[in-house]
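Quick review question:
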């Protein structure tokens, strides 16, 4: 079971750290994600960092429940667990 329809809220904290809240099915999880500007420029040029973080969480939620997502991680770590991440990311960025 995944949480692909969950509501995702993103707040930029200090520097390159984003707080992410995933709410759905009566549950809520919280995460801190580090997104360096060089990673944003490589993975999602022309997009706001919040957009990349949201797309990354949509990708993750299509594959695992929110409770399985790490509480703290550097965004490029996703590709270690899901090698297809960077290849499929443009499709998630294109979603409105």
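Suggested answer, residue by residue:
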């Amino acid at each position: 079971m995944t949480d692909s329809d969950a509501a995702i809220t993103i707040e930029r904290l200090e520097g390159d750290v984003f707080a992410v809240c995933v709410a759905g099915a009566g549950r809520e999880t919280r995460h801190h994600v580090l997104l360096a500007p060089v990673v944003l420029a490589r993975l999602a040029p022309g997009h706001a960092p919040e957009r990349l973080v949201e797309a990354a969480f949509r990708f993750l939620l299509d594959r695992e429940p929110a409770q399985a997502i790490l509480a703290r991680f550097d965004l490029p770590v996703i590709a270690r667990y899901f090698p297809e991440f960077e290849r499929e990311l443009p499709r998630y960025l294109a979603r409105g």
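Why it works: The chain has a mean pLDDT of 94. The beta strands are 7-12, 17-24, 27-34, 72-74.
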